Each structure stands twice: as C-alpha cells, then as structure tokens.
Amino acid sequence: MSISPPAPGNAAAGRKAGTVALASYIGTTVEWYDFFIYGVAATLVFRTEFFPGFSDLAGTLASLGTFAVGFIARPLGGVVMGHFGDRVGRKSMLVVSLLMMGIATTLIGLIPTYDTIGAWAPILLIVLRLVQGVGVGGEWAGAVLMAVENAPPKRRSLYGCFPQLGLPSGILLSQLAFLLLTGVMSAESFTAWGWRIAFLSSSLLIVVGLLIRLRIEESSDFEKVRDAGQVEKLPVVEVFRRSSLQILVGSLASIAAPAIGYIVSVYMVSYGTKTLGLPTPTMLWILVSVSGAWIVMMLVSGLAGDRFGRKATFTFGAAVGVLWAFPMFWLVDTGSIALIVIALIGITAANSIMAGPQPALITEMFPIHLRYSGASISYTLASILGGGVAPLLATALFAEYGTSAAVSVLIAVICLTSLCAILAASRKVLYAEEPAAVATTSRTLRPLVDDTTT
Fold this sequence. Notes:
This protein has 454 residues and is mainly alpha-helical. 79% of the residues lie in helices and 0% in strands.
C-alpha cells in the first residue's frame, strides 16, 4: 500500500508526510510495547511478586489496579504536554514522552520484589507506573498531530491511523516478548527474574525510537500558527473556554476504542488462563495472531475514513462493537482456539473501524493553536474509563455475577456511549474554525468528505 500523495508536484511534501507517519508509528509502537508489557506482567507476575499476601482475586485486582493507575496519570501528561505542545511545538513533546516511558519501564525491570524490600516494592511500582502514565498521556496527541498535520489533504485519515497502528503492534511485540521468555525458561525462572528482561529490553527500543524522532521536522501546521503569531500563552485554559463541548464529545467518543483494546490485550489473558483454563502461551499466541489482523484492519479503516468520511466510518465501528459484544463471549466461552480467534478478530474489527479515522476526527474538532491541548485532554480523559479501568471493571463484574454476559454488557454500554456521542455531534462541533491569520494558509481547515449527512 502506497501512502504517497497522487499529485506529482507534491513529491517532497509526500516524502516528509510519509517519514513523519512512519516515525509516529515506530515511536508509538515502542511506547505501547512499554505500556502493554506492564499489562501482561500485571496478569501473570505482579500478583505473586508484589502482592503476595492477597487472595487470588484480591491480588489480581490489586495488580490490575496498578495498571489502571497509569491511566489516572494520563490526563496530567495530556495537560502538561498539551500546553507545551501548543506553545513550543509537537516534536519536542514526542521526545520527552518517549524518554519518560522508556526510563520508567526500564526501572520497573529493576524493582526488587515484596519479599526483598516489603511495601516499598508495590509503592515503587505505582510511582513508576504514574510516570509511564504521564509520558503516554502526551504521546497520543503529539504523534497524531504530527501525522495528520503533515498529511496530504485527501489522506488525513490514512496518515492519522499510523500512530494508531502502534496499539496492535505494541501488543504484538509484548506478546512475542513474553512468549519467547516463557518458551525458553521454566515457569519458576520466569516468575523469579525472567519477566524483567521484557522491561529492560525497552532501553534498546527507546534508543531506536529517539534516533527516528529527532530526525523528523516540526508540524507544518504548527509552524504556520507560530509564524502568524497565534500561539496562545495558556492553551489549556483557552481550549476549555472556547472548545468545552468539543472536549466533551471527543472524550465520550474516544472511550470505546481503547476499552476494547485493553480488554482484549489485558483482561482476555487473565480470562483465558484462569476461567477457561488455557495455557498462558496459548492465549499469548492467540493475541499474536489477532494483532496481525488488527494492523491490517486499522489501515483499511484509515482508508475508509478518507473515502466515506470520518464520522460515518467511526459510527459504523461503534455499532459493530455494540452488536458483537455478546457473540464475542459466546464464542470465547466454547474454549475452542479457532472460535476464540474469530471472536477477538470480530471485536478488534470494531476497534479498528473506530480507531482508524479517530485521529483525524478528534484533530479536526480543535483549531490548530489549541489542538494539542484539546486532543490530549479528550483522549486522556477517555482513557481513564475506556482504558485502565475497563479490565478492572471486567474482572470485578465477572467475579460478582459469575457470567461473561456481565462483561458483554460493559463492552456494549461503552461502545453505545461513543456511538451516541459522535452521532449527536453537529458539524460545528466536528470542524473547528481557524483564526483568520491561519485560515488562509492552513491545509486542515475543512474536511474533504461531507459528514453532515451521516
């Protein structure tokens, strides 16, 4: 699939856009790898190594609770990096977020267990998880804006989905890392020290990500705002004052895709091994196979967003999520490997159809000079319920009601929330007006597909 723009006169701009999209993809893949190895370790290792005095259920909830802590910290990262991203530029914040994630992840691999340092073990785990959360809180918007704002006008949805590819790619890498480790060492060795290798290897990935990100140029749209003298002194304050409705709609719309992503990547590992009794390597291989299809579906949905409109594509994906929530667990609960793969491909299709056009959709809600703040705040607020809390809620609901139908209801309600939010949004909410000094030169002022009829 070529991502070069069709106009031959735009070859240089096309090369820049392609380089930025690739850099955004690689950087977000590294960061999501860091984020997801924590999620896998929380279900496989942290319960016994950091919360040994808890019962099985309480220990699982506690370890997943530390996973959720990272999402609670994400709005802070979104606010801080959104402020400086709109003041200083997108590129510098991407470098900062990558460093924060990499350093925190590497240090998690060095924390002694509860048996060695007692209560300090879970405390340090939580602190470093908070740092991870702050780092990734500013990552999504920065990577998305760099890709969308440098994209050819008719390919904003496609280019914008490249940072989104980091989600399934990060899942793929994290599952492969744990499969390799569990395959070459005994269960006792993996629990005692082997899991740390996945975290320590992050330091190598961060070097690769930094080398790529330091070479890319600043967003062309941000440069136009800066040249026009439209940079705000307090963009976070201004975005709440001028675009509060967009923040509400963007937050509600952004809940479903990450909820599905984290339920699949985190909760299903625990559900498959503890409820269905499947071996851990089997569940990890299932996620590897699903992630490959996930990446392809995300690219297709990015193309669909440019062809049929962001709003139309997104609402279709949310509807699929609502409709597939119950069939998904009917298939999963059979215990058949093939049916589980089909079930998870179905629900990740819903994620992909929403997540592909989502970057362009959320980006276009905010004017360029407030865009980093607006997109960061919207996405990070949504990630609290849609991301970290979703696996925790799924675990608690299954424990309370003893049936996967309770988890299906959770997924359906979350997807319905995002569906209603975007359906209710007017054109005025979805497409921001630019200041006059910027509007005359901006490439991202107007959508190329009219979504008002959807």
